[in-house]
Write a structure and sequence with these properties.
The chain has three domains: 109 residues, Orthogonal Bundle (Arc Repressor Mutant, subunit A), CATH 1.10.10.10; 217 residues, Type I PLP-dependent aspartate aminotransferase-like (Major domain) (Aspartate Aminotransferase, domain 2); 112 residues, Aspartate Aminotransferase, domain 1. Helix 8 crosses helix 14. With 504 residues, it is an alpha/beta fold. The strands form three sheets. It has an eight-stranded mixed β-sheet, sandwiched between helices. Strands 1-3-2 form a three-stranded antiparallel β-sheet. Strands 12-13-14 form a three-stranded antiparallel β-sheet, with helices on one face. The protein is built from 18 helices and 14 strands.
Length: 504
Amino acid sequence: MPRIAPYLSVGTINLDRSAPIPLHRQLYRALREKILTNVILPGERLPSSRVLAEELHLGRNTVVNAYNQLISEGFLDSAVGSGTIVNSDLPEELTGAAVSSDNLNDLSRAPGERDIRISERGLALIDVPFLEETRLKPFTPAYPFIDERFVTIWGSLMSKAWRRMTRNQFGYPSALGYYPLREAIASYLRMARGVKCVSQQVIITDGAQQALNLTAQLLLNPGESVWIEDPSYDGAKAAFRNVPARIVPVPIDSSGLMIDNALKTDPTARLAYISPSNQFPLGVTMDLNRRLQLINWAEENNAWIIEDDYDSEFRYGGPPVMALQGIDRSERVIYVGTFSKVLYPGLRLGYMVAPADLIEPIHAMRAHADRGSPLFEQIVLNEYIREGHFPRHIRRMRKLYSERRTALIGALEKHLGDILELSDSEAGLHIVTRLPEGVDDVQLSMALRTRGYEVPCLSSYSIHKPKIGGLLFGFTALDVSEMDDAVSRIRPVLLDAISRAGAG
């Protein structure tokens, strides 16, 4: 039987409410130190998030976020009915950190605990969730399936490219990217997405995230406003906070970004960030009237639009949706794409299509930032596209994902149809579901993670917490034969969450 601590002495947890560090980070550090130094022993139970929040006079989400981080790092275990317990089998590399108090003092100190003068931009980023090393779990969203055919072809192209590397190609690459690859991407975008571009406008980046960072730094001065979809991609929030810009969250309806709402809130915004073909995470497609309205706003106000077209290749019903950039006659749209969702995330190659007058300043920024993306991977990707493997891969994955999406919808309706409301999006790599009113989607997502499922909650992507919570179920990496059983195992966790909400 594990030890059970009847309480955690809150008097030993010191939180500085005047410090610039978020309280959930301070609490996380304090609890982590107690575990590493054996103040809290393996197997001991921690108070519920509600109890600890009351004892420390904190918001419950503050405690939940601290617990969540400790769970993801392996310090805590949490299961419905068992509470939150210190992991009884901590890895040696974690327990070893407690051996030296000098190590602990040096490595676990949070920014702000001493005068190290972290910039406002750096502090603003601490509170934005971010991805680290990805561990594939059932229902992980936006994680592409890696099949043997892809691995074989990619490996062959790597071997061939390495043998053909010239002496000059071992030098510094172009900060704009490998030109043959830029040509291949421009050709693909014109044909498949209706993007108006020539190869000189395509700039290779280290994933879409770098494209967002570069664009934000180039186009925004500190304090200027940017419209951002709410909910939306966390990486976009981080890019704009790093300026730092004034983020103006704009709600989404069935037609996309509610531009009239944005105009009433802040008509002087310098930039708008959108994912119009398949809004992340809700899956809404922006209609033509809204697209034209947004383009007219940008033209009339000398503003810019970032179009994040992160997974446009995967649409399973209805006609293809052309890129917003393709109907922009005033060159106010910066188009951003990535190969992370199509091929594999570790490739870390993306691209942006920039208006002609932005190419030179982006070139300078990229050159000063990191001198460009690694050339070898660009050469391999170029060959993969030019030999025709890329469109074949997309067609194969689209068929596979469509089958898995259908299986997931069927399993959700069968096992959870009386609990969850499913979205009707016909694109993307995940299904959005809505929970009954009053159910805490943050807590529920955390409970599912402790059971081995990665099912993010809608609140985690939102600036303004939604009135009704939701969950995101990815379907790309789970086989059709596994779908029904995986969904059925989730039902008891959801029922427990609903009963707790009713009791509360």
